[in-house]
Amino acid sequence: MAYPKKLSAYMAYSTAHREDAKAALIASGNEKPSMGDVAKHISAKWNALSDEEKAVRGASDIVLVVRVVFSFEIARDIARGDGKTASGAATDGAHV
User: Fold this and answer.
1) What is the Rg, in whole angstroms, of the alpha carbon atoms belonging to the chain?
2) pLDDT at 67 over 60
3) What is the chain's percent helix, strand, coil content, to nearest 5?
4) Is 40 a residue whose pLDDT tops 90?
5) In a 3-state reduction of DSSP, which class is residue 90?
6) Does residue 43 contact residue 56 with C-beta atoms inside 8 Å?
7) Which of 25, 35, 46, 94 could form a disulfide with 30, with the two C-beta atoms 3.0–4.6 Å apart?
């Protein structure tokens, strides 16, 4: 798989919440937020969470990010016609 071997709770949180942060910045008047603006917004939200919230949200966001990456890789492999999914199972060409 393409995701990092160890995905930290913060990295999963930032990946899962990037679009929401971008939308919040646009809604607040920043028409084209930079990557730095988005990162600062995400960081501020993360730092406002308690340690317990970070653990729970981080774990659920890791699951979400891994699911998205895995789904993308399966679709990519099927589209390439590799004949196998990312798990190694053979496909019959049917859409998943």
Assistant:
1) 17
2) yes
3) 65, 0, 30
4) yes
5) strand
6) no
7) 25
Domain-located, residue 87: no
DSSP symbol at 58: H
Q: Indicate the residue type of 16.
A: A
Q: Does residue 86 lie within any of the structural domains?
A: no
18: its two tokens: 């990037």
In terms of Cα–Cα distance, which of 44, 7, 47, 69 is closest to 36? 44
> What pLDDT shows up at residue 75?
73
* Residue 13 CA: distances (Å) to CA of 31, 53, 75, 81: 23, 11, 24, 33
Full domain range(s) for residue 39:
9-80
Tell me which residue has tokens 């990519």.
Answer: 76
Q: How many domains is the chain partitioned into structurally?
A: 1
| Residue pair 65/12 in contact by the 8 Å Cβ criterion | yes
Q: Residue 2 domain-assigned? A: no
Mean pLDDT over 61-84 rounds to: 70
- Amino acid code (one letter) for 42: I
Give the pLDDT score at 1.
43
Tell me the pTM: 0.58
